[in-house]
Amino acid sequence: MAQMSARAQARYNAMAAAARRRRRLQTLLPWLVIIAMFGIWEIACVAFDIPVFILPAPHNIWHAAVRWWQPLLQDSLVTLYSTLAGFGMAIVAGLLLGVAIGSSTLVYKGLYPLLIAFNSIPKVAVVPVLIIWFGIGMWPAVITAFLISFFPIVVNVATGIATVEPELKDVLRALGARPRDIILKVGLPRAMPYFFASLKIAVTVAFVGAIIAESVAPNAGIGRLMMVASSRFDVPLVFAGLITTGLMGIVLYWIAEIIERRTTGWATRGTDQHLAAGG
Question: What is the model's pTM?
């Protein structure tokens, strides 16, 4: 018995050590991949003598970012503010419309074709109209970020609410629950994993909308900065703007993922949470 207990303890210790190594690897792996990517990029640019105006090496991009750090920072904050404003509007409108579509067949039949048609319109074609309506400034970027991030939230929230089992609804009605109670206490919790999955998609594409508007109607922001840099053939500064936008997207995605873990951990219990959430 003592020998079996010692073997079980040794097996447990080995499994715990393997789990710790796996967690450390999962933490380090994204950084190792990023470092390897930039290393291969740098070596390829130097080895093949690629001109800077075609593909700048990472050290050229770093020098451009250091040289122009102040306008890069200012324009990044403008883009971040426009993106967050549009994204916040998309969350509110997407939740409300998603609940309405997911809980009512009539609303679904009436609005869903219109939503699909509107989402099929290229947002870059809408920007000139927004400029006519709101002028050159922040609002075209905010509204474009809203338009491009609105649809994923609506679809996922509606899907989460609509997939509540009919049998469960029948039981709740038999117990005296009203339709509003079913939506609030069963439908919305069921839709939360779908909602956060859509947030992680929408928060990244919202930057696309804001930068498209800033490129078409240049006033401030990363889009304007990259347009000015490209007109001067300052390709390293263009790549610095792209990398800055990517970093902001990663940070917002990470924040959404942390909130998701703390609020919907029950939905992925016993599974690989990153795979279950689409992250």
Answer: 0.79
